[in-house]
């Protein structure tokens, strides 16, 4: 199992997290979120390549599909959710299909529609790697998200930040 700590990169603190600048709290929180996402992506890239042998963008597709019913998602919806051009997505799906991780099928009643779904192989690999991937995300976030950053993030969703957790 890959050690998430082996890929840790010391990142400087996000200047927007400190406050006191010109930005309103919502934009300051967004900057903190971007810094956190960058940290997670940097650390995940290596772990994803080692554990799943796919690119980070291909991993994002697998994650989207993993949260769907076995039927899968239409390629146009995947492109929307990831904010990716459809032409780039077509290439990534082809790579995933070649690796045996996804299947493509025509959508019934729509000759142009293509639906993509995870294979059992992909489900197994994701299940085997999930603990390592989760630890990598948690480690990356804890590396950049201290109390000041948490407070800045609560500025983005003040109603959610104060809500007690649901049972």
UniProtKB/TrEMBL annotation:
PROSITE patterns found in the cross-reference section: HTH_MARR_2
**Provenance organism:** Streptomyces aureus
From the Swiss-Prot or TrEMBL record, give the protein name: MarR family winged helix-turn-helix transcriptional regulator
Highest taxon of the lineage: Bacteria
The UniProt entry, under InterPro entries, shows:
HTH_MarR-typ, MarR/SlyA-like, WH-like_DNA-bd_sf, WH_DNA-bd_sf
SMART domains of this UniProt entry? HTH_MARR
Q: Where is the HTH marR-type domain?
A: 24-162
The record ties this protein, via PANTHER family, to: MARR FAMILY REGULATORY PROTEIN, TRANSCRIPTIONAL REGULATOR, MARR FAMILY
Any Pfam family matching the protein: MarR
């Amino acid at each position: 199992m890959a050690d998430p700590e082996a890929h840790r990169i010391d990142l400087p603190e996000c200047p927007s997290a400190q406050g006191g600048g010109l930005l309103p709290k919502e934009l300051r929180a967004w900057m903190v979120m971007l810094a956190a996402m960058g940290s997670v992506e940097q650390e995940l890239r290596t772990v994803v390549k080692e554990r799943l042998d796919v690119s980070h963008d291909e991993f994002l597709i697998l994650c989207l599909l993993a949260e769907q019913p076995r039927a899968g998602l239409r390629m146009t919806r995947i492109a929307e959710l990831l904010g990716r051009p459809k032409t780039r997505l077509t290439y990534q799906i082809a790579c995933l299909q070649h690796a045996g991780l996804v299947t493509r099928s025509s959508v019934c009643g729509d000759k142009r529609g293509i639906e993509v779904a995870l294979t059992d192989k992909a489900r197994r690999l994701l299940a085997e790697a999930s603990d390592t991937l989760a630890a990598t995300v948690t480690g990356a976030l804890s590396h950049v998200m201290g109390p000041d950053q948490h407070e800045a993030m609560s500025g983005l969703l003040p109603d959610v930040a104060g809500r007690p957790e649901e049972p």
